[in-house]
Design brief:
The chain is α/β, with parallel strands linked by helices. Helix content is 39%, strand content 20%. The termini are far apart. The model has no long low-confidence stretch (mean pLDDT 88).
Length: 233
Amino acid sequence: MSDPAPHLLIVDDDERIRGLLRKFLARHGFLVSVARDAAHARRVLAGLEFDLIVMDVMMPGEDGVALTRALRETLTTPILLLTARGETDDRIAGFEAGADDYLPKPFEPKELLLRINAILRRMPEPEPEGAAPKVLALGPVRYDMERAELTQDGTPIRLTATETQLMRIFSQNLRQAVSRAKLVIDLGRDQGQAQERAVDVQITRLRRKIEADPKQPRYLQTVRGEGYMLAPD
């Protein structure tokens, strides 16, 4: 039996764009639902689970960045932001809110498809049956390498898709520095200083989840001139 088609939610106040994206993505094998604004998206999300959310930033009322920030309190579903704003500061604001990727308008539908597939490939694979657990100790925090799960005192800590992939990369390179440029490549991002800065933002968010004092990290360390390194107990 083949795997079920990934289910996407498109959130955009432009009816024409919603329709075009729905048809295009459906032709490429996705199940697609749509929402016209943040309030509509909340109602849809209350009743359905999605594999990825594609969301416009510039919406009336609650914008896409604010909705992303709110959803991150309870959801780990990957979020790809779309916006006419292409400046670095706007991209960083999206990543700080918890977005997994960012695509400025106008864009080619094929590029959107590539971004969506790249994000979905970063999602954790199902745990192999009978696999022996490999757990890293990060103070009171534990990271199960097989399950790609982070917990503290038995309580799950939600990770976004990008944070999950970062933990996988670091756990495969324990006590070895991984450069920002390599992280950009492994995350499936376009290369460049803006994306390296976006990685810095994601590292900051991840540190808040695993460090007692994120400003003086003990486990997810900065190696000057080389990158970042995970050093568990």
